[in-house]
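quick one
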Amino acid sequence: MEISAEKIWNNCLVFIKDNIQQQAYKTWFEPITPLKITDNSLSIQVPSKFFYEWLEEHYVKILKVALTRELGDEARLIYIIKMENTFGNKAPFTESIPSSNQARMNAQQVDAPLQAFSNELKNPFVIPGIRNLQIESQLNPNYNFENFLEGDSNRLARSAGMAVSNKPGGTSFNPLMIFGGVGLGKTHLAHAIGVEIKDKYPDKTVLYISAEKFTQQYIESVKKNTRNDFIHFYQVIDILIIDDVQFFSGKSGTQDVFFHIFNHLHQNGKQVIITSDKAPVDMQDIEQRLLSRFKWGLSAELQVPDLETRISILKNKLFRDGVTIDDNVLEYVAKNIKSNVRELEGAIISLIAQSSFNRVDIDLDLAKEIVNKFVKNTKREVSIDYIQKVVSEYFQMDVATLQSKTRKRHIVQARQLAMYFAKKFTKASLATIGTQIGKRDHATVLHACKTVDNLSFTDKQFRKYVEDLNQKLSL
Ligand code: ADP
Ligand code: MG
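structure w/ adenosine-5'-diphosphate:
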């Protein structure tokens, strides 16, 4: 290392300190950390977006002079904005990120050539060069248009999404609201639009965020007194995708801040895409003024896909996974699982897993078995009663015997297994589990769980019980 970033920055600071008021120096320059120097670019870390804008607006000239003295005419300054400091979140934006991006995702980088800023800045949002603002988009590249299969159920939403991707902010579909039930592809389509825009317009700032995460960030920002930073951050985004806005229900603070961000973006021709599990008319506890905004653009529904679409979705998935399945098997699955795409995919995945696990062919019989379990399973909530029933059946006893006070070893074991699985598969407390399984107390349940753990280590036969039951209960 020839010259350290720290050294360069310290020299700049000496010069700056000499030329501005002490209070201003303390406020705006002391919190900066020099990070690195590459060629003639110095990277400095600033605590927030707002901070960056302030520096650009008030101190860009002096920064330029100071840096040029150190690095010559070609000097460049790169701001690194620490998002976690902005919102006070420990790990903001961690959703749906491939792990290879982990290192980058907490920072947005502003790569601002000093030249571009030498004029007085009036509106911080139209700074020339702001295009260089890079925000990790949080998009999942696996959710794209290519593998979002078209059908009657999604044609409108899909083509509106395409139109928006071609001309973000430039269609009357603003906002574009995608709504529909669970597992029908809202999240997938929302990502696909973002991915497509990023592909066509790499310079645009796209951000995907769940309404839940947005809410958390907002709450944090209020706590940390950085509400303005929060708003500023969202106002510079070109394409904002908010998933599951029904989550805003009853949260008036978040709705209020979103309303302002929305208006700002909309007025500036930025694209907003939202998804919801309900149509705007059916949304509850959402402020009227926000609902009316949602209705400005287009609301497009994702419906339950018809048989033909279900088949093509499955075929496509299998093709991409490199698996072949007989058409009649595939049709059987598609015919019998109709409520949503996520379940459809789930069924086919268990089918493949079962067949490779037990080394049997994927035939109609296996499909029937899986689909039966699947359909039953998705309707059933795993309850303590259900667990007792399965365990009793497995040991060929009735539930009353399992619950009885007897100390016969095999009955005690069955009871302990039931307790163990109740702990594993339900959210019930130890006390509740005890009460429901033969009126025992929580200490008994705790003891049962430990015993099962121990025995499955030491006793081969017992381990087999645990594995069998585990499979029965989790299928
Ligand atoms: P939602 O957000 O509406 O609950 P998702 O977008 O998470 O639903 O979709 C559930 C699953 O179904 C995802 O794996 C998604 O890829 C898949 N899926 C939904 N619709 C389609 C479609 N038209 N083509 C291909 N896959 C789809
Ligand atoms: Mg979703």
